[in-house]
Write a structure and sequence with these properties.
Elements (H helix, E strand, L loop, with lengths): L2 H12 L17 H18 L4 E2 L3 H4 E4 L5 E3 L4 E10 L6 E8 L1 H7 L7 E2 L3 E4 L3 E3 L3 E2 L3 E9 L25 H10 L9 H15 L5 H9 L11
Parallel strand pairs: 5-7, 6-9
Antiparallel strand pairs: 1-10, 2-10, 3-8, 4-5, 4-10, 7-8
Length: 233
Amino acid sequence: MTLDDLIASFRSDADDAPSSIGGGDDDLLWKDAEVARFLGEAEEEAAIRKRLLFDDYTLSIVQIAVVANRSSYPLDSRMFEVTKARLLSVADSACIQELHITTRDELDEVCPRWRDERGRPRYLVQDDTRVVLPGIVDGSYMLRLEGYRTPLSPITSDSDGETIPEIGAIHHRFLVHWALHRAYSKPDTEMFNPQKAAVALAAFEQYFGLRPDADLRKDQRANQPHVIAVHRW
């Protein structure tokens, strides 16, 4: 479905169409730009909740140049979950180290001196906006990541009507539920309808699931197999 199709579906479900007599944009409760913004939020929410967009190929997101003595690197804001990390040779891109994704707490437990040790990275910690190669990096490498992200070109209020959401087409029609939830949540006497907003949110969550919070994702990473225990510094 295109953005125009999704807006039309929203208007049908919300009974928000121009009147047949001299109808125009002024008759609409929600303008196209506002509905488009709601649909952009919906696609991002869907991508996060159902982990729909796996990426191991967009180099600007998954490839980071690593230099000696620098351990912390910005993570692209669109990637919210790193599932695999590899260290590559700068010279020939051959994999020289699979990195274990871990937490600082786990490192403190089994490798208490990790902050001051120099060597080739063997672990990776994902923070909210950065990735960290624990310890003191001993040289230059290429870090390659795999994981889940939000859309590369999100839908906005300025998007063309022919824009197609990046997530799979089978999911598109369910995005309208979020747009309805946001529309009916607007604090306006004519638009605000908490009951309809709740029904629309429930329909969205029934299909895409609940949104995981930061603590849940941190716990999921912490609960990975503790193979780090066999690597003593």
